[in-house]
Write a structure and sequence with these properties.
The complex is a heterodimer of chains A (about 325) and B (about 325). Chain A has about 325 residues and is of the alpha/beta class. Chain A has 12 helices and 7 strands. In chain A, the strands form 2 sheets. A 5-stranded parallel sheet of chain A has the order 1-2-3-7-6, with helices on both faces. Chain A has a two-stranded antiparallel ribbon with strand order 4-5. In chain A, helix 9 links the parallel strand 6 and strand 7. In chain A, helix 2 runs parallel beside helix 3. The N and C termini of chain A lie far apart (about 55 Å). Chain B is globular, with a radius of gyration of 20 Å. Chain B has 12 helices and 14 strands. Chain B is an alpha/beta fold and about 325 residues long. Chain B folds into 2 domains: about 190 residues, Thiamin diphosphate (ThDP)-binding fold, Pyr/PP domains (Rossmann fold, 3-Layer(aba) Sandwich), CATH 3.40.50.970; about 130 residues, Rossmann fold. The chains are: A alpha/beta (about 325), B alpha/beta (about 325). Chains A and B meet through helix 5 and helix 6 of A and helix 3, helix 4 and helix 5 of B.
Chain lengths: ~325, ~325
């Protein structure tokens, strides 16, 4: 895979925006200002960006409870997302959805989902629509090693194979479904891709902590699906840096585990090492992006904090398009 | 006006609407039938015969036989609706809502609200419901109350061929998720159906009888049972206002209140157990909003608090009967 300078800078920037967004939320949540459940995506950025960088706005993704990364990578407005998580009127969903229910259909983001495994059948439905339209669009379900155990995911994989629609199942194995390890919960010896193969799909496997490996594997997959070969799956081995939810004490982690994965499996560090090592970009190039992204997130937080609260009089608006 | 039964009204409406709008797709178990068999696609149009000819006319991309995977059927419909289509998902038995409930009420019902009013989910779920064929506890239920209780869904229950057409057309042209209930004993009910473009607005109850002495509210099969009771009562000079709700969400509260304000006596007939039922809901609404008009305690005619039995005589004992409606009417009239 060859990337030009702009593509590399863009990919790095998007991963950095996700990382900074999540690291900043981790700090903001401690103040108690942000309500409800927040599930941070930090550590998994190479997956969202390695995949979504190859999609168009016409392609449709469904996401998970850990969806901020997918939203940003697919093109949702970062300020709108921050306002949403702060529960503000100017939020992407007017404060109705919050962290777990961010969506923007204009950019092909069909919704994060508070129900583990809730999205996979919807991606198949999007793929059914895509095939009828005949424009080469695809429907993608992001699922984790938790959702891979849900019956909905099995049903969705089978329906996709049976109907031969352009659906893609992306399994992000961060090794923990809530507080339970994949060694325990994923019965196929931690191997999720083999389940997709069991349903009759071609499946890829890649290191989800490496942007380039993720990108390359997904490029092959995407070409295969866009060519009309039916659905396919990919399992990415990745890491989450924080708990299942913010506030999770993570007693299930091994000693020094988080320090180790941050040191050895960080997708931003790996990206930097590769592109600087190959003299494609310089440390200065990337440091400049870092500074710009930090300022961007600072501004997003400030604007979110300053934004109005939703009007309680609107609490029952937008339930129906029309109701008479 | 053409004379046809409810099944034929549904089939002809699906044909006409799919012809008119290429975004409409149909998916469900055996909506074609015979795929993957030596006999080949049989295209009988499902075990209820409600989709014949669609697969031949509109092809396998728009008329999709699914595996027995109710969550995937409803979930795929939800996703296709977000992606710009107008899916019709068929649940062979409404009881299978239990298998697919997450996709109905955590997903399609809530997309628009959760996403800040910027999306729509124009999916129609067709649910075959009701007792009367000895299909027992898992294939006979009338699960409309639980779906009526869920904001974001619309719930419709046609009882005539004209309404079957009008309500289905309205569902397919609207932009909200609609639960379209088809009573399995009513498919053969015949009647006049308006030709051409015919839509029945939701939230408008059908005035079946105007009698003035008592208000009877019913939906589904309970409408015809109430009509039978009305005939008996008429012989004794008792006049019944009978409303067929047509839709339980939205609910025509005005029509209910208007009649109760005149009669002062209310009977609600509901083919479900009584607790948290539509009947209870309507009685509560009337008690709250028309208390001063009431001349007698409202009566609910419902099934008992039990699952639905198999044996013919037991099932008949379970389902509210015309006789029970008649008795309830006499009770509210006798109250002084």
């Amino acid at each position: 895979m060859q990337f030009n300078r702009d593509e590399l800078l863009g990919a790095y920037r998007r991963m950095k925006v996700i990382r900074e967004f999540e690291e900043r939320l981790h700090e903001e949540i401690k103040t108690g200002e942000i309500a409800g459940f927040t599930h941070l995506y930090a550590g998994q950025e190479a997956v969202a960006v390695g995949i979504c960088d190859q999609l168009t706005v016409e392609d449709m993704i469904v996401s998970t409870h850990r969806g901020h990364g997918h939203c940003i990578a697919k093109g949702c407005d970062v300020k709108g997302m921050m306002k949403e998580i702060f529960g503000r009127a100017g939020g992407l969903c007017k404060g109705r959805g919050g962290s777990m229910h961010i969506a923007d259909l204009d950019v092909g983001m069909l919704g994060a989902n508070g129900i583990v495994g809730g999205g996979a059948p919807q991606a198949v439905g999007a793929a059914i629509a895509a095939r009828i339209d005949g424009k080469g669009r695809v429907g993608i379900a992001f699922s984790g090693d938790g959702a891979c155990n849900q019956g909905t995911t099995f049903e969705a994989m089978n329906l996709a194979v049976v109907t031969k629609v352009p659906a893609i199942f992306v399994f992000e194995n961060n090794h923990y479904s809530e507080h339970t390890g994949d060694a325990y919960a994923v019965g196929t010896n931690k191997d999720i891709a083999s389940r997709a193969e069991g349903f009759g799909m071609k499946a890829w496997r890649a290191n989800g902590c490496d942007f380039f490996e993720t990108y390359t594997a997904f490029a092959e997959l995407l070409e295969y699906v866009r060519a009309g070969n039916g659905p396919a799956a990919i399992e990415l081995d990745t890491e989450r840096y924080y708990g299942h939810f913010e506030g999770d004490p993570q007693r299930y982690r091994g000693k020094g585990e988080i320090d180790r994965i941050r040191a050895e499996r960080d997708c931003l560090k790996a990206f930097r090492a590769k592109v600087v090592g190959a003299a494609l970009l310089t440390d200065d190039d990337l440091d400049k992006v870092d500074a710009e992204v930090i300022a961007q997130i600072e501004e997003a937080v400030a604007e979110a904090r300053a934004d109005e609260l939703p009007d309680p009089a609107t609490v029952a608006d937008d339930v129906y398009v029309e109701y008479y | 006006m053409a004379i046809m039964n409810i099944r034929e009204a549904i089939v002809s409406t699906l044909h006409a609407e799919m012809e008119r709008d290429s975004d409409i797709i149909l998916l469900g178990e055996d909506v074609v039938g015979g795929n993957g068999t030596a006999g080949g696609p049989e295209a009988i149009g499902g075990i209820w015969g409600t989709s014949p000819g669609l697969w031949e006319k509109f092809g396998p991309e728009r008329v999709i036989d699914t595996p027995i995977s109710e969550s995937a059927i409803i979930g795929a419909a939800a996703g296709a609706a977000l992606a710009g289509k107008r899916p019709v998902a068929e649940l062979m038995f409404a009881d299978f809502v239990g298998v697919s409930l997450d996709q109905i009420w955590n997903q399609m019902a809530k997309f628009r609200y959760m996403f800040g009013g910027k999306t729509k989910c124009p999916a129609v779920v067709r649910l075959v419901y009701g007792a009367g064929m000895s299909t027992a506890a898992q294939h006979s239920q009338s699960v409309y109350a639980m779906l009526t209780a869920m904001p974001g869904l619309k719930v419709v229950l046609p009882t005539t061929p004209a309404d079957a057409k009008g309500l289905l057309t309205e569902a397919l042209r609207g932009d909200d998720p609609v639960m379209y209930f088809e009573h399995k004993t009513l498919y053969g009910v015949k009647g006049e159906v308006p030709e051409g473009d015919y839509r029945q607005r939701f939230g408008e109850a059908r005035v079946v009888r105007e009698g003035g002495d008592v208000t009877v509210i019913a939906c589904g099969r309970m409408v015809s049972f109430s009509e039978k009771a009305a005939d008996k009562l008429a012989a004794d000079g008792i006049g019944m206002d009978l409303l067929d709700l047509r839709t339980t969400s939205p609910l025509d509260e005005d029509a209910i209140l208007e009649s109760v304000e005149q009669t002062g006596r209310l009977v609600v007939v509901d083919e479900t157990p009584p607790r948290c039922s539509l009947a209870a809901d309507i009685c509560a609404m009337v008690a709250q909003r028309a208390f001063s008009s009431l001349k007698a305690p409202p009566q609910m005619v419902t099934a008992p608090h039990s699952p639905i039995p198999f044996a013919r005589n037991l099932e008949r004992a379970w389902v509210p009967s015309p006789q029970k409606v008649e008795e309830a009417v006499r009770r509210v009239l006798a109250f002084r």
